[in-house]
Recover the amino acids of this structure.
């Protein structure tokens, strides 16, 4: 358990509505990541953060924005949800320390989002 | 975009049999290769971090080898058990570049009792 929680764990929403997912960590890790899981694609990186207010895009960032105003929280926002954004979303952290250079990451429990 | 491939995509193995599958990655610019175990409806769980050519890691009945010169890693499971059913993901970290991992699409392993 890397002290990562995600909320909500499940959400059903309608096309065109904004949605915000929250990732919360308790151990002051600098790096946090948002991934989505899709059949046939494994895990794909949406955005990541390397500190408060420092974020960068991943490979599937279109339609998503992120914010990190506090070390412990990394928010993922779908400004106007579409059915193609139906997925399971995982947050991950990269701990500091000896293995940090290897980019070992630990994952939260996931949020299942359905866009109707 | 880095090319990380896993094969086969899916695999059915009889309980008690041993099995293995492959992750291939760019052989140049290698820094680390991760293996994760991902059970249905759970989050991926770290198995191994492999960093040196010729590395071999072992955890119980699961082991992994690494060949950085040719760009592949094998994951072996000896004496498969039903609890080994999961998707096994590999993830590549290049030497130069960024703080990201590139994941393969996974091998989905089903153990038949």
């Amino acid at each position: 358990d890397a002290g990562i929680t995600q909320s909500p764990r499940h959400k059903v929403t309608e096309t065109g509505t904004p949605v915000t997912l929250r990732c919360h960590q308790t151990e002051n890790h600098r790096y946090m990541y948002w991934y989505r899981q899709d059949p046939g694609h494994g895990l794909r990186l949406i955005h990541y953060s390397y500190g408060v207010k420092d974020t960068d895009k991943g490979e599937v960032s279109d339609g998503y924005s992120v914010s990190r105003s506090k070390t412990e929280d990394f928010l993922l926002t779908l400004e106007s949800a579409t059915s193609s954004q139906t997925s399971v979303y995982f947050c991950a952290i990269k701990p500091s320390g000896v293995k940090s250079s290897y980019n070992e990451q630990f994952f939260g429990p996931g949020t299942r989002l359905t866009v109707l | 975009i880095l090319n990380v491939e896993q094969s086969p995509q899916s695999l059915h193995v009889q309980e008690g049999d041993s099995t293995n599958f492959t992750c291939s990655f760019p052989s140049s610019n290698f820094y680390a290769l991760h293996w994760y175990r991902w059970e249905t409806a759970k989050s991926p769980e770290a198995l191994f971090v492999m960093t040196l050519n010729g590395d071999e890691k072992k955890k119980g009945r699961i082991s992994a080898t690494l060949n950085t010169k040719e760009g592949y890693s094998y994951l072996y499971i000896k004496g498969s058990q039903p609890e080994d059913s999961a998707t096994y993901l590999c993830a590549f970290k290049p030497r130069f570049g960024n703080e990201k991992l590139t994941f393969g699409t996974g091998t989905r392993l089903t153990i038949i009792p």
